[in-house]
Write a structure and sequence with these properties.
- The chain is an alpha+beta fold and 334 residues long.
- The chain has a domain of 115 residues: Alpha-Beta Plaits (2-Layer Sandwich).
- It contains ten helices and six strands; from the N terminus they run H-H-H-H-H-H-H-E-E-E-E-H-E-E-H-H.
- It has a six-stranded antiparallel beta barrel.
- Strand 3 and strand 4 form a beta hairpin.
- Helix 2 runs antiparallel to helix 3.
- The longest helix has 65 residues.
- 20% of the residues are buried.
Length: 334
């Protein structure tokens, strides 16, 4: 099929040849009984030229469509490989961010690695869009599925009606069916969210096993509904973190002092993933009960309106897990 927007010349030639053929047929019908031998020969010659023209145009269209289909298969295959490379880089980048958060001695080297990984991600995105001329529609559909999937996983269930959730899910399914089979498995859907959670769980467990501890940043601000300022906490004080709700943040992971008062929100350790991914992974690794931790250091630039500190969870939380119920603070029901 001729795409008139991209190849208007062939479209124009096709229209001219069609109009000429119709005109020739009309003239032959009118002069069927009166045409001389010369006129008949001329009609045959014109008909031959038109036939050659039609054959050329059709051959071009068939060849280009066939070639484009072959290129699309190669492009889809390349797109799949690019996404696999990107996924590996994302995992590496998340691990580097975690190491930098712990202020290890090799921080400078990790900063370089982090910058290189960001550059690699930019290169991958550029490589994807190099194929835009061939799989432009598929890329646009993939981006739309990614956007809808991100909205679906970021927005809490209570923030949307059941009908809105069903509409988004139906839209994702409809768009997915428009993609080639090879691309349906690599675009963002709910399955990708589960895969991100699985990757985050693995990274949390590997970090705890490799280093013997994990350090989390806790943030407090005056505008949210925390129950106590963390300024009274000292290095070594015991705290707990568990699921909770605040006015501005909704469901999140909250830190509590020994009195069971919320003193801040545990921030996302892996910025490459959404907070809901981090929160879900934390609940899978540490379980639903409050987790014992200790204040490891205070944050920089604390003011009356904004404060932060760090909680360290080491392998001792495993030993304390069995006695968590007896140590559980009197947390309020949110």
């Amino acid at each position: 099929m001729i795409d008139l927007k991209k190849d208007w010349v062939k479209g124009l030639i096709f229209v001219v040849l069609l109009a000429g053929s119709l005109a020739l047929i009309y003239v032959q019908i009118i002069n069927a009984g009166t045409a001389t031998k010369i006129e008949s020969t001329l009609f045959s010659a014109i008909q031959f030229v038109l036939s050659v023209g039609f054959t050329w145009v059709l051959a071009q269209v068939v060849f280009e469509n066939s070639e484009q289909e072959k290129q699309k298969k190669f492009a889809v295959g390349a797109f799949r490989r690019i996404k696999e490379i990107e996924r590996n880089i994302v995992r590496t980048y998340a691990h580097v961010c975690s190491s930098l958060e712990r202020n290890e001695d090799k921080g400078t080297s990790l900063e370089v690695v982090k910058a290189n990984l960001l550059n690699a991600q930019d290169t991958i995105r550029s490589s994807i869009y190099d194929w835009a001329d061939i799989i432009e529609n598929e890329l646009e559909i993939a981006q739309e599925i990614k956007r809808l999937g991100k909205e679906q996983s970021n927005v809490p269930d209570e923030a949307e009606s059941e009908e809105e959730q069903k509409d988004k899910k139906a839209a994702i399914e409809d768009l997915t069916r428009q993609l080639p089979l090879e691309m349906r498995q690599i675009v963002r859907t709910e399955d990708d969210y589960d895969e991100e959670v699985a990757d985050a769980i693995t990274l949390l467990e590997d970090t705890l096993e490799s280093f013997g501890f994990i350090e989390f940043r806790v943030f407090w601000d005056l505008d949210d509904s925390f129950e106590k300022e963390p300024k009274s906490l000292k290095v070594g004080d015991e705290c707990y973190f568990s699921d909770g709700i605040t006015t501005n943040r909704g469901t999140c992971i909250l830190a509590y002092d020994q009195d069971g008062l919320s003193v801040g929100v545990v921030t996302n350790l892996f910025l490459i993933w959404r907070y809901q991914v981090f929160k879900n992974a934390m609940s899978k690794v540490f379980g639903p009960t409050p987790v014992l931790s200790r204040v490891s250091r205070t944050g920089d630039g604390n003011t009356a309106d904004v404060q932060s500190f760090y909680l360290k969870v080491d392998e001792s939380w495993i030993l304390a897990k069995a006695d968590t119920k007896s140590m559980e603070p009197d947390l309020k029901d949110f």
